[in-house]
Amino acid sequence: MGKLALVAKITHVPSIILSEQEGPRKGTRKAAIAGLREISRRCREAGVDTLVVFDTHWLVNSSYHVNCAPHYKGIYTSNELPHFIKNMPFECDGNPVLGHQLARMASAMGVDTLAHDDTSLEPEYGTLVPLRYMNEDLHFKVVSVSALCTSHYLSDSARLGWAMRKAVEELYEGNVAFLASGSFSHRFAQNGQAQEFAFKFWNPLLEELDKTVLRMWEEARWSEFCAMLPEYATKGHGEGFMHDTAMMLGALGWSEYTGAAEVITPLFGSTGTGQAIVVLPVMPLSGQDVPAASSQSATGLHRFPSRL
Predict the structure, then answer these.
(1) What is d(CA 51, CA 40) in angstroms, rounded to the nearest whole number?
(2) Which among 18, 23, 47, 54 is positioned nearest to 33, based on CA atoms?
(3) Which of 42, 86, 155, 172 is most deeply packed, by most CB within 10 A?
(4) pLDDT digits over 96-120, tens only?
């Protein structure tokens, strides 16, 4: 049937938009833009027809949600950072068929998920900023998945990712990319200090933590990382509580994943946060279903427990 052709952790940092504009920040995010365009190139090379974005700027308080309207078009201004992203035009096609397949499989596997195609809901900037550089010619269809989940367990997000891969491979006719759109550490600079930390991490501890995590990814130390993810998401102020990362790794096989990450855009600081673009090669799954619940503790997440 279908194929999960590419998986990546990507940045949507709003200073990318600012770097397009005349002034002292112009050109300062060339590496991030180049990285997003490289992901786009690889997707095209792999025959991807739809980008599924796990968006850490889409906040939801109940259930998981999939935005799969037939078409999106509008003008976007961020309510969070209206001085960075303002009056930004956007347009892309959605994929209602895939969106419903993703939601249906996730729900069948015990993760309550709803798809929305008859909706005026627009994508958030965790989706729109990357699309600005990845989909300028409207080549790809786009499906957005809520990944700022306030009342959800990381284990359920991992199960969601696993289920969505099964949906692609068992129900869909086409090639799909999964993009986890969010940062590594995410401690914003304190109010009034944004300029000072424009190209820095909030403190050396978070910078070293992110460097360690990226090194673990490059060395394929997934069992260790999956065990530490709940603490990393908390202590590292993870964006969207790092639900996008849990979804991404769930799709890849969680702690049994064996692929070594490839860093496309090296780790960089932005207004206190840690950002990078990383490709995680898609490996064959071993064929077993989601492992049974093992524990309700944080370390129990290692094996897809039902609850943290």
Answers:
(1) 10
(2) 18
(3) 155
(4) 999 999 999 999 999 999 999 999 9
Asked whether the beta carbons of 250 and 61 are under 8 A apart, the reply is: no
Residue with tokens 């096989």, as numbered in its chain: 253
List CB contacts of 165: < 8 A, sequence separation 6 or more.
4, 178, 250, 251, 252, 285
Give residue-wise pLDDT tens across range 151-169. Answer: 999 999 999 999 999 999 9
| Closest-CA residue to 114 (of 146, 79, 86) | 146
pLDDT at 176: 98
Helix (H, G, I), strand (E, B) or coil at 91: strand
Domain limits, the chain: 3-303
Domain 3-303: CATH superfamily is: LigB-like (3.40.830.10)
From its phi and psi, is residue 257 left (phi > 0), alpha (psi between -120 and 50) or beta?
Answer: beta
- Cβ-proximal residues to 210 (8 Å cutoff; 6+ apart), any chain: 184, 185, 201, 236, 267, 274, 276
Asked whether the predicted pLDDT for residue 236 surpasses 90, the reply is yes
Runs of H (alpha helix) within the chain: 15-18, 30-45, 96-108, 125-134, 154-171, 204-218, 222-235, 243-252
For helices 30-45 and 125-134, what crossing angle results, to 10°? Answer: 70
Q: What are phi and psi of 28, to 5 degrees?
A: -80, -10
- The first and second tokens of residue 56, run together, are 């850490």
Whether the CB-CB separation of 121 and 208 falls below 8 Å is answered with no
